[in-house]
Structure formats: C-alpha cells, structure tokens
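Input.
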Amino acid sequence: MTGGEIANIIRGYIAVNGEKIRFKGIAYGRYGGQNVAPRLSPISKKRVKAVFGDVSKFEEDLQQKLVSGDFEVDPVAAEASKKKEELEHHHTHS
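Output.
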C-alpha cells in the first residue's frame, strides 16, 4: 500500500481457478474505523460475473475480507509498487 497517513491506494488480485482477477481501491480510516473501497475494472467485472454471477455480492465480500485483514501481502511486489509510485511522483513534481 502507498499513500498518506489517512488513505492508501491498494492494488491486488483474487486468484480464481488459476486466473488472476485484478482490482484497485482506496483504504482509509482512523475516524470511525478502517474501510476499503475496492473497484473492479470492466474486464474484471466480466470475469467475476462469469465465475461467481453476482458482481455486487463479490465486491461486498471482497471489501469485508480486506477490512478484516483476510488477505496475503506479497512484500516483493509491494516494495516494487511503492518504488514505482515514488518515481512517478518525483517525475510529476520535478
């Protein structure tokens, strides 16, 4: 995750039948507790619908899992993403 003290951008994927369904979102919190707003791309929504049927229910379940900490973090990928964003931030603010 990257970002400030209150909000962080998240990127991840759900592994389903050997296939990765990617998502992005915002994790934020402090006042009133933690919350996460995952968003699926149109392509990911199509894939979710084909596998699970109910996209809204899937997004709700994903949000609950993220809020409760029911996920795994890949430290190598997280560090690479952080470095990439730092470089992009540096180039856009130079």
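The first strand starts at residue 2 and ends at 3.
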